[in-house]
Amino acid sequence: MRTDSWINLQPAIYGSASLTKAWYMGLFYDEETLSNVPSLNAEEVLYTLSHIENRIINRADVSLPLLTQFKTPFWLQVYFKLKDEHQHIELNNPLLCYELISYFLERRVFMAKKSTEKIFLLKKISDSISEGNKKLRVSKEKILSYINCYPDAYEELINAGIIIEEKRLSTTIPTEIVRFLNDDIYTYFLFIQITDKFEYKPSKPFFEHILNSFSGQNSQRDHILNWSIRFSINRNEIAALKNIFRLPFSNYEKNSAFDFICYVSKYELSKPNSNFNKLSIGIDFIDIMATGRTMSNLYKETIKTISENVLNEDIQIMLHVIECNVNLIDVDKIALANTMQLLKRNYKRLNELFPINPYDLILYFYNNLINKPNESKSLEEKIIKLCQEIDQSKPMRNEEITSAEILTYRLVLIALFSQKNYAECHRFIMAILSKYPNIFYVRHSVFSPFLLLHLGQTYIKLNYFKKAQRIMQFVDKIISSDYTYHTNFILASFNVFKANFYNATHHYEQALIETNIGLDITRKNNFKMLEITLLLSKIDTLKHTEESEEVSSVIKELLNFLTAHKLSMPDYSNLSSHEFEHTFKILKSYRKHQNL
Description:
The chain is mostly helical. Helix content is 65%, strand content 3%. The chain contains 30 helices and four strands. It has helices spanning 3-14, 17-22, 42-53, 64-70, 74-85, 95-110, 115-128, 144-149, 151-159, 183-197, 204-213, 219-234, 242-246, 251-270, 283-291, 297-309, 313-329, 333-344, 347-353, 358-369, 377-391, 403-418, 422-435, 447-461, 465-480, 488-504, 508-525, 528-542, 551-564, 581-595; strands at residues 130-132, 135-139, 163-168, 175-180. Helix 5 crosses helix 6, helix 21 (377-391) packs parallel to helix 23 (422-435) and helix 26 packs parallel to helix 28. The longest helix is centred in the middle third of the chain and has 20 residues, at 251-270. It is elongated, with a radius of gyration of 29 Å.
């Protein structure tokens, strides 16, 4: 029933003892939410959405937050109108939850008559609300002075279903309370209060206020952060978002924020007249994408979508380099070849943008993928020269490292490891450490744990096991810290490192444990290269244990995995011991003949 219909009908029901007793609470009444409207179940939501969309909608098609929101039938009506009037956002995009609230409030408050008075009242109500035993509410008496100033605006807010008046019967004298129809609307006006307080500037103090004013592991803080991300990208203030990663928000919040940045940026780019557009995307966006490599499908889609639409050539080039990085880890020869063609056109500019031309490094990996011999002498010389230049640089602060450097260093280290040039790999990491002495203490970028894990793997190859163990303990400590930003890719890479360490020190049972934990992560997240690496490691481990009969089973599993995904087995995927090299070559040779 519409709110205004209920207001007209309510006095008649109150006036009848019979109706009040028999009907007022209805067949359903939730004492906790004071609601006589039952929530829809998931099947009812999907059934309704299927009719709206004119196609079958399954649970996998709808993001979990949106499915929860649609259980309140009111939001389905809002979605129907939004879909009819605006460009459609996919149902699996969590941003839709926020667009629904924004759309509803825009029409009922911001563009309605007496909007200034209504916004003033809603701010005052949200400011006065406290959490009681009956959810978020405020005594009407506390806000009566504001209501008396703007009685018509207040009445219209009730009629529009933004706020609700209810009797509080638990006190000696029944009193009236006021609450928002929906907690999400209340959270939005809390967010509006914050933007007012910081004069619409999403700065470091802005995010510090969110961090300190809302407790962690609280859905309200998650929503406020998401509103902040949407607000910042809407205004194209991308640099402000770096504060989420630099401040001690939890790792869960940082990963969720990174995903939400991807969702919002893709959507904003598709909108006409958006501030975040083909012309305005700059280096700040690249900085976030380069330091938060999550390797998720969402991340890949975001990088691809934006690289295809951005007009700034330098930004496009850097996005293509990130794409190549993703394709290498995906062991995707076709996608890699296509993006390399785009990079090759800008070969000269790549020399100017990066410390060493990333195309040369990517070409090395591509040849590796297609089993083509590499003429890597000139590449080695370039890497050695770069290493000397970095080593001779004056020490710099962590903040001064550029995305171009991060992308280059990552590719160089993987290339050196693939070439089995472990001494040069160690020299290169030490050179980076010389230029950025505190780089291992960065907690807002995945580059720091990546560098540490690479150093640890290098120590294993050089037989510096005590140093490798110290790295392992240090990485374990920083990952255990809740505010350190790390991703599932880093966790799986850490399992690879630990498995290699335990293999090298003959602790094979522990190596198997780490390998299996890592394989669970890679399978859930579709990390193809790491899955190959871990399966190779598992074969290496099993050859040294009493479970040696399982070797053929894991070899079969590896070959089936490669066949199912139409993958090769590149040299850079083999991080196992030098003793395993012969087995790796046999497996690779067998795989090659199988492909022929």
